[in-house]
Amino acid sequence: MGIFVSDVGSLLAALGTTITMAVIAGIGSIVLGVVITAARISPIPVLRGAALVYVQFFVNVPLLVLLVVAVFALPDAGLMMPLTPTAVIVLTFYEAAYTAEAIRSGVNTVSAGQIEASRALGFTLLQTLRLVVVPQALRAAVQPIGNVMIALTMNTALAAAVGVVELTSSANKLNLVQAQPILIFSVTGAVYMALALAIGLGAGRIERRVAIKR
Amino acid sequence: MHVVNSPSRQIPLVALLVTSALALSACSSGSAGVPGAAPSPSGATSGAGGGLASVYANAPVAAVADLLPGSTMEKIKKRGKLIVAEALDAPLLSQQDPTNPANVDGFDADLAKMLAIYILGKPNVEIVPPASETREALLGNGTVDVVFNTYTITVERAAQVDFAGPYFASGLAVAVKADNTAIHGISDLGGKTVIVGANTPAVTEVPKQQPTATIISFGTDPEAVQALTQGRGDAYVQDFTLLASDAASNKAIKVVGQPFTTEPYGIGLKHGDTQFKTFVNGWLKKIEADGSWAKIWTATLGTAVTSSVPTPPAIGSVPGS
Predict the structure, then answer these.
(1) Parent domain of A29
(2) I want to staple B266 with a disulfide (CB 3.0 to 4.6 A). Which of A132, B11, B86, B163 is the partner?
(3) How many domains does chain A have?
């Protein structure tokens, strides 16, 4: 374990980058996911179509491709941002497609009768979404969203390929000096596992607290 | 809010079964390594520009008595192919020919073929693609016989693997955008943003020499060059020969100053296999003495630089070899 001690500062900083990326992209993708779901279930055909295209695009294009395009192709088009923000934005757009699908599964648990009732009471579309559909949909979708958040955390590792110094790239660098791949990547894997476990347990707690007792 | 009827629900399941079946069958044949890069007997005839055909034809072959019973080389001979860990995307060193994927050429790749000829009599090389992160593990568990992967000999690594050689000494140099006149070498990189290749010696060497430099690393050389030309960093630190080749094909960048380190490259072997190490060192001495080492250098790395053929470093001359 001595090999980790000498580089503990840079490893912790890299872990911090991984967590920061996951948290920002996580919150961003949940917010964006709600918007996409709202569009997806709205009565406006154009919005429904746009949301469908969005989800299909991001679900079917590999994240690594999106990252490489954003990092290397966008500057040629005159848009250059620092590496870590670029990776966070790509992750947000990518994972929003998955959160949107998770939230949509939650929407399906809200019975059509409630929506009809809200319409009968004179709610506008936004009121129906904000007061009836979304609160219940999010509560029902806590675990699926938690799974997406776990996947998002694991996916931050791909940012190493485009130069972001996060946990995986830092482990790579340590291995380059110490030449102990099995030990180093096992420990790194265990750290990712701990993050996943924390997210999973957190989602479980949240779900129990917000669950609707029917 | 749509009710999914059962027939359409079954489609993804069928698709899943089909894909997983495909994935499984791909895995079972996957042990053969890279598609198309597996045993390439054609290597001798269609090597780098065909210029090496005579080198392969006259390559030394080990005497039967040298393939000691029970040794690693005897096992390779019985298997009929040499399993090598080498890159497929390193220009001049080990690069897969995009028009003919069966061809992998470059200094490392051609030396690997020479070693295969020495043991087997023919250049039967199976390539296990780049694995800088796991080279030690691949050797340790016997997945590969040798590693030809610009594998710098270090004392830390020598505790995990054995090194034959060094077979080549290179060094890190600095490249900048062609219009940059402020940076003349490693000494000008303090406080600058420096691009390096992930898993290259530069990752550790640049912070050692310039602690205030910010390092960003990219997986491949083309990505790093692209990042340099787009201005993501002030300089790109990489192997001198590779940079020379990049600068020759891309007028937007230039190499400044001379190499500032010496990187002795070794052939990675399983730790503790002294017999095999002695055998490979003996082979290196032979190809260095008969001039084939120099011919391979000229046909590969030599095409990017103007200097004359370097003298190969003495076998066992660095700590860890």
Answers:
(1) 2-210
(2) B163
(3) 1
Residue type at B81?
K
ipTM of the complex, rounded to two decimals: 0.73
Interchain CB distance below 8 Å, A180 and B160: yes
Is the distance from CB of A29 to CB of A150 less than 8 angstroms?
no
* Whole-number pLDDT of residue A1: 63
DSSP B41: G
Please indicate whether, in this complex, the C-beta atoms of B204 and A169 are within 8 angstroms of each other: no
Contact B156 A41 (CB under 8 A): no
Burial class from Cβ neighbours inside 10 Å (0-12, 13-18, 19+) for residue B257 reads: middle
Separation of alpha carbons A151 and A204, rounded Å: 16
Choice between B40 and B224, residue whose per-residue pLDDT is larger: B224
Tokens representing B230? 């787009």
Count CB pairs under 8 A between chains A and B: 67
B chain contacts of residue A165, beta-carbon cutoff 8 Å:
215-217
Partners of A72 on chain B (C-beta within 8 Å) are: 223, 226-227, 230
Q: What is the 8-class DSSP label of residue B252?
A: T
Tell me the average pLDDT across B170-176.
91
Tens of pLDDT, residue by residue over B63-114, are 888 888 888 988 999 999 999 998 887 778 888 888 888 888 889 999 999 9
At residue A17, does pLDDT exceed 90?
Answer: yes
Question: What's the pLDDT score for residue B58?
Answer: 84
Nearest residue of chain A to residue B233 (CA atoms): A82
Task: Say if CB A158 and CB A71 are below 8 A apart.
Answer: no
d(CA A145, CA A152): 10
pLDDT 10s digits, B249-270: 888 998 888 889 988 999 999 9
pTM over 0.90: no
Residue A96's CATH number = 1.10.3720.10
* Inter-chain CB proximity A80 and B1 less than 8 Å: no
CB–CB of B149/B85 below 8 Å?
yes
pLDDT, mean over chain A: 92
Domains and CATH numbers, chain B: 41-170+264-303 (3.40.190.10), 172-256 (3.40.190.10)
Amino acid, single-letter form, for residue B66: D
CA distance B266 to B320: 9
Residue type, B56: Y
pLDDT at A6: 77
> What pLDDT is recorded for position B96?
86
Residues whose CB falls within 8 Å of the CB of residue B197, separated by 6 or more in sequence, listed in order: B203, B217, B218, B219, B220, B221, B224, B238
Tokens for A66?
């999106």
